[in-house]
Structure formats: C-alpha cells, structure tokens
C-alpha cells in the first residue's frame, strides 16, 4: 500500500477503507520505504499547543517531541497503543528517525531517549516487526528493525482494538505531500 499524505492533512485519502479490527494481535511485520518527499524541516511543525493536563513530573510537548505514526495497533478506544513513530532526523540530515510510540491509559511515552530506534535512509526498504511474548500482566513488546532488536518495552496488550496506519502529526499537519510505501 502506498500511502500519500497530502499537504495540510493528517491521513492518506480514503484512510477509512483501511480500518480493520484485531482480536488480540501478537505480531505485525511491515516493510516500509519512506520516499524522500517525507523529509521536511521539523521546525515547520511548531503549531503544538499546550495539553489540557500534564502528568506530574512531565514537561510540555514541543516540536522536538513531534512524532508521526507509521503502523501498529491500539485498544478499542485508542487509550492504549503501540506504534512505530517517525520524523526527519533532527540534525537536518537526509535520514528518517524511527521511535517507539507507546500510549498507556492515554499517556504517550515517546519523549524518553530509550524510545529512539535509530535513523535510516530515505528510499530504502526497512523491515520492522512489533511482537510480544506472554506475561501475566504486561507483555514485553520487542521492536525488530532489519533483523536487529532495537528495543523492548512494557505494554498492556488489548484483546480487541484497531490496526493503525500512517498518520502525520498530532496537531501539526503535513507541510507538503508525502509518500510512504508500507507492505506486509
């Protein structure tokens, strides 16, 4: 599937045709190619507004914390989710940075340094797997990129929910047209 996110939008056209439920997903693997059109100046996303509430000890989200979403899954209400986040490398180089984008009880945990999954070149395939193993309460989530484990995180896996697809921003919208090829 080639996802084209048009300038001024969050999602590709006809995104609702991709909505699919899951019933206790265990693993998801995708091969992704970020077209060079996905590169943008991260300072273009400076439309971040302060949140209505902030967890004690947490700081306000800035454009440096801006992550777009690639794929993953969530519970029925979207309060708990595991996804791969992406953005251009903050040093301005022609690389895309990947990160673990986890939400638990509505709180995201991307701002921590251990969520960084590395940088990768545009226009080259990246194989990404999100998987977990059994645990009584929490399921350790492993993220494997190009056959190398890049991170393991705690995540309460939902028994039912939605498969998640490419999404630009949080509040910010795509500054220009972007193309991402995502295949199973």
Would you mind describing this structure in some detail?
The protein has 184 residues and is an all-beta fold. The protein has one domain (2-45, 61-183): Sandwich (Jelly Rolls). Helices cover 0% and strands 43% of the residues. The chain has no helices and 13 strands. Strands 2, 4, 5, 6, 7, 8 and 12 form a seven-stranded antiparallel beta sheet that branches. A six-stranded antiparallel beta sheet has the order 1-13-3-9-10-11, with no helix packed on it. A hairpin with a 6-residue loop joins strand 9 and strand 10. The termini are close together. The mean pLDDT is 82.
Topology overview:
Layout: E1 2-5, E2 21-22, E3 27-34, E4 68-75, E5 81-88, E6 95-104, E7 107-108, E8 116-121, E9 126-132, E10 139-145, E11 148-155, E12 161-164, E13 178-183
Antiparallel strand pairs: 1-13, 2-12, 3-9, 3-13, 4-5, 4-12, 5-6, 6-7, 6-8, 9-10, 10-11
* Share in helix: under 10%
Q: So how many helices? A: 0
Query: Can you tell me the CATH architecture?
Result: Sandwich
Structural shape: globular
SS class: mainly beta
Q: Mean of residue pLDDT?
A: 82
N/C terminus separation:
9 Å
- Estimate the strand proportion: 35-45%
In short:
By secondary structure, this protein is mainly β. It has strands spanning 2-5, 21-22, 27-34, 68-75, 81-88, 95-104, 107-108, 116-121, 126-132, 139-145, 148-155, 161-164, 178-183. It has no helices and 13 strands.
């Amino acid at each position: 599937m080639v996802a084209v996110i048009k300038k001024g939008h969050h999602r590709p056209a006809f995104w609702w045709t991709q909505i699919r439920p899951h019933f206790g997903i265990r693993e998801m693997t995708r091969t992704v190619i970020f077209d060079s059109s996905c590169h943008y100046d991260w300072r273009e996303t400076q439309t971040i507004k302060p949140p209505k509430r902030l967890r004690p000890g947490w700081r306000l989200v800035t454009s440096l914390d801006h992550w777009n979403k690639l794929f993953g899954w969530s519970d029925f209400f979207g309060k708990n989710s595991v996804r791969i986040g992406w953005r251009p490398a903050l040093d301005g180089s022609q690389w895309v940075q990947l990160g673990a984008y986890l939400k638990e009880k509505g709180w995201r945990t991307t701002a921590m340094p251990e969520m960084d999954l590395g940088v990768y070149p545009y226009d080259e395939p990246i194989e990404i797997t999100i998987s977990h193993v059994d645990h009584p309460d929490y399921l350790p989530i492993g993220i494997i990129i190009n056959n190398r484990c890049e991170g393991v995180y705690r995540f309460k896996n939902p028994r039912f929910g939605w498969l998640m697809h490419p999404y630009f921003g949080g509040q910010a919208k795509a500054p220009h047209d972007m193309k991402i090829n995502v295949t199973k």
